[in-house]
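Researcher: I'm comparing several assemblies side by side, and this is the next one on my list. It has 962 residues spread over two chains. Same procedure as the others: predict the full complex and return the structure.
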Amino acid sequence: MNILNTRLVSCLCYCFSAAALLSVISCRKAHERNGTDPLEDKEEQITKQTSTSLGESERRAGIAETSLKKIAAGIVAGHVPPEMKGVTEPIVQVAGKFTGSDPASRHSEAHVFKITNGEKIFVALARIELKAKLANGRLCSVVGQLASKWVVGDNGSLLLQSLKEAAFLPPVESPVAWFEEQTGKVIGNEPAFLHHLSHGIDHWLTRVEAAHGIDAFIRNGMALGDIDGDNRDDVYICQPGGLPNRLFLHQKDGRVKEIDAGVGILDHTSAALFVDIDNDNDQDLVLATPAGISLFENEGSLNFAARGVLRTNSADCHALAAADYNLDGNLDLYITFALGDRLGDENNDRFLFHDAQDGGANQLFRGDGDWSFTEATESTGLHKGNNRHSLAATWHDFDLDGDPDLYVANDYGANQLYRNDAAEDGKRIFTEVATMVGVEDKAAGMSASWGDFNRDGRPDLYVGNMYSNAGSRITSHPDFPVANNAGLLAVYSRFAKGNTLLSQTKPNQFIELTDTATMGRWAWSSLFADLDNDGWQDLFVANGYITATQPEDL
Amino acid sequence: MPLGNSGASPGLVRSSPAQALIEAVRRGSSFSGNERHVVFQNIAGRKFSDVSGITGLDLADDGRAVCFTDWDNDGDLDLWINNRNSPQVRFFRNNNPGDMRGLTVRLVGSTCPRDAIGARAILYLKGQKPQTQSVTAGSGFLAQSSKTLHFGLAEDAKIEKLVVHWPGAEAASYPGLAAGSLIIRQGETPQPLNLKDPALSNTPVADASSSRHTFLAQRLPTNTILPRPSGKIQEPSLVVLASKGCPNCEIQLAEWRKNPPQEIAINVLYAEKLHEDNPLQLQLIQLLHDHFFYITQRSLETPLSFLVDPEGRLCAIYRGRIDRETLKKDTASLKIDGAPLRMASLPFKGHWQSGSLPEAEPLGFAEELLDAGLVSSANLYIREHFTLMQSDEAFPQLLERLKEMENK
């Protein structure tokens, strides 16, 4: 039965995220639509316990959201519905700003994230986002919240009574968009793009048998590195099983050209790194595949030669990160596993949504030079607590003592920060200090990035998590299963609150900044980068889980 | 609990909420879809402001990995992003609307790794807080950005010096630098890179239709499932599901009437007729199709054709009209096996790292028939292919489940 393991392993890692929290909602929606409930057993019980008023609350949220979406679309077109009373002045002002905006450029969104539980009167809080090209040609965007007050009629109908702004941020404007898409110019004429990458994964799901290792969830990464020594970064794109990874060479004219170079690997590839493993001044390639960590040596002349596979604990290889942890001049490799071998264990009772400790055991491979690697997980102390669902790892000298430390972002629970210390015998020992320094960030960790955003010299940390409107609504509802357990409730609410910015305010002491940069939606990549060249590191969050052909989201 | 409908769903998965989600997604549902990317502008290190709407980056893709690099060597960061959906990769050029300068620095180690991974560079500016950047290999989500460091320089920024902490070595100080791109080798003086790229000319993005068929790597026996044309069992055959009023079906069938494909027997089934006379057959066709692909229970496109070899094994699935050349090539390839078959089943060439693909699993398909509640179809299928399944360790379990369901 092993054929499907790869596929299950690769699809499960992320769909677990928030599933326990949100499936209650999703499945009720599905139930309403289809008349069948896809959930059975214990989920059914949760639904039953809470059905009446959480169900009503969700019904109200749905109606309010539909109505607020229309209002938001009105505001970005320059008008507030005249029949409505009780609209506050700042909302009218924003509508005024958008008067005469270019209709084709308008976009608006409204999402209810909180709803009060009154019997006859309630307040729905919605996040709104408005953008358009103004009459003067400038791009403008407004983000804020709307507090809407509703009266419930005897027949259950809802009447909007008043609308008030909350947390409206000042409009932001720019003469042109910060970025311009040039996919067509750079890669659009490449056959590999035309015939393969221009199609989404759903296209390939009906053409490539699942047995090759392809699924709908997709966890295939990408790497940049200069493989031909022209000081221009080339691009390697990872693909699911049955579709080849693609290597594109950066041409002098800015376009790319695909080359085979022996690394069009067909195995499901989650991560790739371009690093100079053998210190011969060119970029070698390291891949995470179900076979293990595959090593390829850059032979010059645009060709790579296979230099073996480091066998791993599990086929569920996920993220790769490289650094020289023992400062011997040879790069070392760290690999994470999202689930590991315990996925198929029917007696697994250690999966706890908020504190899962049934993940795979991540591994550290010490580079000894000449393409030789030795596993050093246990000898360095990294085996302690090594049982989480690890979706990302990144090395950084957070304590500025000259050696790289390791941060691991885990789904369903606490993250880990392994401090790198020199032992007396010159060896390296890692000590897990996440709780001690304040970076454990118990949530659905998916990615991590280090950067000194406030330029105080101390590295700060940004962690990608999950933001969910539905999750915020149901965890704040009194019928939420753990509503009477304040501690656990806080833990669960955190899973829907979004990304986490951790500022190292004093050496080895991080403070979470809760009021900024948290709303990253279902975040995957979350990176510090100075996008506007003003010297301050901005943040980019790439998100979105599964957008399928059916219009309604679960 | 028996193994699940795809032949291998472990108990953990089935009993968890995740399984419900997986199955919904396989049937074609969205989950946290249509979500736009988010950009936060750093306001002088005090707070972040959501500027997504003016960046041009707020696309509603299912984004995954993001990599930054100064692609066109103009001192600002451009980016590559890959997606779950179409297109799987996008490139964005930075318009730098504030017209600010930048400094990019590539570090090359001598005592530390050549890539200088782990090196920390601090840019000291006159009257301003310093900026720090480090060389990293692997950050964000499954991504590796450029190892070239980037520093944005606001209008009033004046560089005093760059200090590089080389891993495991003494820090070095580099005074007298200006905006632009540099390469610094450990122990040497910085050198300019002068890599200004020409502006790109505009070229259109075109799409091309790709192969609409799958030559299967796992050949599943289909006797009792697919009705082959009677009397011509020694030839390869094509079982075609057509529907009325489907233009592609009409064109295809007219073409075959005029010029029948050689050495292949064709059996055409009409969906409407099956729906009335034999709905079970329709259900079996759907299950057979879904057995091979990650997606399930989506509506099938007609004509939908199944190429079956003389032994009754399914070898290829075609959606829409069949190209005569493709059919000829496929019927000529029915004997290939092993690694060449695995490669022939894929749309593109490439290299495998792992060993061979296991054979088709009739037992798994029998499980799927039971999952769908088709007890007598399962019984027939198991009887017919008994010899192919009996050595499987899960076989007694399958029989037990069959008996149990028959007794109900």
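Model: For your comparison table: Chain A touches chain B through 201 residues (CB under 8 Å).
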